[in-house]
């Protein structure tokens, strides 16, 4: 829904741009009526009534371009109406019925002006601050709290310094459109309270009616959104024009009501003005009258439908919450399945990698063993020195190996200890003519003299046997460790 579409509809109905309401009023009409067609019909009906009631026509036509003139209009007070003001024809009938009172009010006002009885503060120019809806709403609340030494905060929201303050209705510090949208969204009743600073009953209404415990208790329930304003501010004056307020204080109640579509049998919810109450705070707008109207008329006719809407909303919210929970559970299950698949894939890849590593290590071990065997065969032929004759100067060694064999051999005193290690390492191999492999031997055993026990370690590899103590003539050795 757009303001431009509503202006186009009004032009088609014969209302030029110069006579159309401002954008703010049009937006409020769209919010209240729900679509462009009904908003245009409501505006047309209002203008038709204004053409028949000259006093009201002048007041509404000058609402946005003249300084605000809000007078004490206690001569005309409208009693609470228990019917729903949802039809323009009802509004036209009521305003025609009130025409004599309107003319009387205009005459009295004219005489008072001639006698200069009216207050000089009647004409109040709109300031930038008063034109800001949110600032105007906040200023209205601050003014009300200051005048009554009260607070609009509910008891559970107060701090320790506010316990002694008078409790006021919980006015919301937001624009009228926002308050209306809040009431529609949460299926609550919007209570609109309009006052005028230049009205003689304004102070009494603020200090005696808006502080009444029963009224405050009723408006503080979860069934209400309370919005208020002073008609010297543009937003409140626009709302006063929209709701057809003629004197102050003025209270209106707005809520969603069922409406059947004109083109189908579908029943939809539409915001409607349930009742308007205006007049003296000592009679029509007294706390007792307002509480009675709320408890006896408003709530019995409104709450059943609102409760049904709330139940439907709660059901939808529960269904959405259930669907969201199911979606979360599905996503969690899918995530766990994906994690299991990923874990299984990772474990399979790890197992495959380990298998490849084992195969690679086994192949390397086989190749290493083959090179070691080839080296031992080559070393037995090329590195083990020839055994000297028995009649020569020799060293006789008897070497006991781990598999139980005793290896006996003669060595020259000039042979090195390494030659003995190679002899022991290659004793089990067959001598073979082969090429020297790319292999560096590592002896995994050590030779030890038996008595006295002495280890002939790898650090003595290049030592001649004749220079090693205990190997003169003959000796017994042990090969401790692992032989190939």
UniProtKB/TrEMBL annotation:
A GO MF term: ubiquitin binding
Region (Disordered): 57-77
Matching InterPro entries: Thioredoxin-like_sf (IPR036249), UAS (IPR006577), Ubiquitin-like_domsf (IPR029071), UBX_dom (IPR001012), UBX_domain-protein (IPR050730)
Cellular component annotations (GO), alphabetically ordered: endoplasmic reticulum
SMART domains: UAS, UBX
A Gene Ontology biological process term: ERAD pathway
Keyword terms of this UniProt record: Coiled coil
Residue ranges constituting the UBX domain according to the UniProt record: 390-454
Protein name: UBX domain-containing protein 10
Organism the protein comes from: Malassezia cuniculi
Gene name as annotated: ucp10
């Amino acid at each position: 829904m757009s303001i431009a579409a509503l202006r186009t509809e009004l032009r088609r109905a014969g209302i030029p741009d110069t006579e159309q309401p401002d954008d703010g009023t049009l937006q409020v009409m769209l919010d209240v009526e729900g679509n462009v067609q009904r908003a245009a019909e409501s505006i047309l009906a209002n203008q038709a009534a204004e053409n028949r009631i000259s006093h009201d026509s002048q007041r509404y036509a000058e609402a946005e371009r003249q300084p605000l003139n809000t007078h004490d209009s206690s001569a005309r007070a409208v009693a609470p109406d228990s019917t729903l003001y949802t039809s323009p024809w009802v509004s036209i009938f009521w305003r025609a019925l009130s025409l004599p009172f309107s003319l009387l009010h205009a005459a009295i006002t004219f005489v008072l002006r001639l006698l200069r009885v009216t207050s000089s503060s009647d004409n109040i120019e709109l300031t930038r601050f008063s034109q800001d809806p949110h600032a105007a709403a906040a200023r209205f609340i601050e003014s009300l709290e200051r005048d009554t030494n009260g607070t609009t905060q509910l008891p559970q929201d107060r701090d320790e310094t506010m316990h002694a303050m008078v409790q006021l209705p919980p006015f919301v510090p937001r624009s009228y459109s926002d308050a209306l949208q809040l009431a529609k969204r949460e299926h609550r009743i919007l209570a609109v309270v309009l006052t005028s600073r230049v009205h003689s009953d304004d102070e009494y209404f603020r200090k005696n009616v808006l502080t009444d415990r029963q009224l405050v208790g009723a408006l503080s329930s979860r069934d209400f959104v309370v919005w208020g304003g002073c008609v010297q501010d543009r937003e409140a004056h626009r709302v006063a024009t929209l709701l057809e307020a003629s004197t102050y204080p003025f209270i209106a109640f707005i809520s969603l009501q069922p409406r059947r579509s004109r083109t189908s049998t579908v029943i939809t919810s539409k915001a409607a003005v349930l009742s308007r109450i205006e007049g003296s705070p000592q009679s029509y707008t007294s706390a007792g009258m307002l509480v009675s109207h709320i408890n006896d008329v408003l709530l019995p006719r409104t709450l059943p439908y609102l409760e049904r809407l709330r139940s439907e909303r709660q059901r939808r919210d529960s269904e959405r919450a259930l669907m969201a929970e199911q979606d979360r559970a599905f996503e969690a299950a899918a995530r766990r399945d994906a994690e299991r698949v990923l874990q299984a894939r990772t474990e399979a890849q790890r197992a495959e990698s380990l298998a490849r590593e084992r195969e690679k290590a086994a192949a390397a071990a086989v190749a290493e063993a083959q090179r070691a065997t080839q080296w031992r065969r080559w070393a037995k032929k090329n590195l083990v020195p020839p055994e000297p004759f028995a009649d020569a100067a020799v060293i006789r060694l008897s070497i006991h190996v781990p598999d139980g064999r005793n290896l006996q051999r003669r060595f020259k005193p000039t042979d090195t200890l390494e030659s003995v290690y190679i002899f022991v390492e290659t004793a089990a191999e067959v001598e073979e003519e082969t090429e020297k492999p790319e292999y560096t031997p590592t002896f995994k055993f050590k030779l030890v003299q038996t008595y006295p026990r002495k280890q002939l370690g790898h650090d003595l590899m290049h030592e001649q046997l004749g220079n090693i103590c205990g190997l003169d003539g003959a000796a017994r050795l042990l090969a401790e460790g692992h032989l190939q």
